[in-house]
Design brief:
Helices cover 30% and strands 25% of the residues. It is an alpha/beta fold. The chain has one domain: Maf protein (Alpha-Beta Complex), CATH 3.90.950.10. The N and C termini lie close together (10 Å). The relative contact order is 0.15. Bound molecules: inosinic acid.
């Protein structure tokens, strides 16, 4: 397996995974290299389902092994919400800011702040289908802190740290994050 396609157009995710796969002699392509690829609707009710759906489509279209990821934030006091719906928690066209504001308002007055990010990374090629899971436990703080990262980073403080993901350097975040952990499992498998 020398070439792999990442089912994403997110330049940040592509560069991050490309750097990790280079030492393994794997050339990472992405959806940017295949303009004919359509946007896959993430309509499954699990992270694994969405990740597999995207990877199956991209592998079938390109004939190459494909990798895809889907992430959700699970908050205990909200019965696991927003979970698989994290990207559109405040509505179909919600911005990151809208979603964070909705989360803080739903958490108003709640003392149990426990939450976790969960990522499913799927690898698909012909009859091969593997899913790797990464989890990062932490808590939802009461107001936004930090301006790095994206999404829910300003209100998520990972366990063992006194800073939010939005205050930590990307190198630290990538090492301990849900996505980083799932990708490490993928890399171990590819090795
Ligand atoms: P996706 O599966 O990477 O598209 O992530 C779905 C949604 O989860 C995003 O729209 C973000 O709101 C949120 N999300 C994913 N990864 C992170 C992260 O590392 N930090 C904060 N929010 C994230």
């Amino acid at each position: 397996m020398k070439r792999l396609v990442l089912a994403s157009r997110n330049k940040h995710k592509i560069e991050e995974l490309r750097d990790l796969l280079r030492p393994l002699g794997i050339d990472l392509l992405s959806a940017l290299d295949f303009p004919e690829l359509e946007e896959v609707v993430e309509d499954k009710d699990t992270l694994e389902g969405n990740a597999l759906k995207k990877a199956r489509y991209v592998s079938a279209m390109t004939g190459l092994p494909a990798v895809s990821d889907d992430t959700g934030l699970e908050v205990d006091a909200l019965a696991g919400a927003p979970g698989v719906y994290s990207a559109r928690y405040a509505g179909e066209d919600a911005t990151y800011g809208d979603n964070v504001r909705k989360l803080l308002s739903e958490m108003d007055g709640k003392s149990n702040r426990r939450a976790r990010f969960r990522t499913a990374v799927a690898l698909v090629h012909d009859s091969l289908e593997e899913v790797f899971e990464g989890i990062c436990p932490g808590q939802i703080i009461r107001e936004e802190k930090g301006d790095k990262g994206f999404g829910y980073d300003p209100v998520f403080m990972p366990e063992g740290y006194e800073r939010t993901f939005a205050e930590l350097d990307s190198e630290v975040k990538n090492r301990i994050s849900h996505r980083g952990r799932a990708i490490q499992k993928l890399i171990e498998y590819l090795k």
